[in-house]
Amino acid sequence: MRDGFGRTIDYMRISVTDRCNLRCRYCMPDGVECVPMADILTLEESARIAACSALLGIRKIKITGGEPLVRLGCCRFVRMLKDTRGIENVTITTNGILLEQYVDQLVEAGIDGINISLDTLDGGLYKALTGGGSLKAVQKALERTLKACESRHIPIKINAVSLDLKDLAAHLGCGYEGPGWRELLTLAKAYPIDVRFIEMMPVGYGRQYRSLNHGELLRELQALYPGLEKDDSVHGNGPAVYYRIPGFLGSVGFISAIHGKFCESCNRLRLTSQGYLKSCLCYEDGKDLRQILRGSGTEEEKDRMLLAAMERAIKQKPMAHCFEHPEMMTECGNMVKIGG
Question: What does the angle CA 334 – CA 74 – CA 27 come to, to the nearest 5 degrees?
């Protein structure tokens, strides 16, 4: 389906929980006041919305949280989506803490891609940044995931928020001296995985942190690796721009919401764990689909109402975000509530 500006909307991010087993400084450092589970969509309700979205042209779904693997039945949900007519691609973004435990189940369920959020390879900084997380657990999970996904050619990506790690470490008092973002490139060199740098978006706690400018980051990368070349092959569902470095097994990607605004090609919707459908991360506007699911009417009537509400959300999708003008934003919630 096309929105009011002619963009094809075929990708939806579904948050299955607002819970998380980490306390990342830029996301939920003090935890969140979790809503009762009764207010969270059941997996069956989320799958029903996904089935309706497929009728409107959604073909690709990303499962997010909070941390999706803390939701019981997350792997079963992958299978539910894979069995949904019209849904062609189901991927997941996880912090990796529980991934070693669940990766085999994800693969058997039919997962099409796994993204691991990882901002540093320094154990001390990782622990400080995540509020006590274990880098070794994520590294073990990555090794296990590489083995589990290899035979099925399931792509693995590392998502790193573009933070000034030295400045952050000084703020956290953990004595980190670098080399900053460069250390993450060793993963793309050693393994056939993509390392993607994501500019910090001024949403929730993220407003308190300065993101590295990807234009400057790219220039540093070009100076460091003169043989850097643009990689135009398809790597996934989103807006990342990729580059290849000679001798590296994986590519390097940039998701630049601020300094490389890509709204003209935005193809996504977001469904929060409470059933609120958002067409743009920047604004609070959306449609309450939980109210429809749990309201009065026959199942057929509810499906018609769901389709109508989703179609309106797509047609009313804003032309662009306004992250460069935070004072114009109307979204006041934290990312963990919205879905990453």
Answer: 20
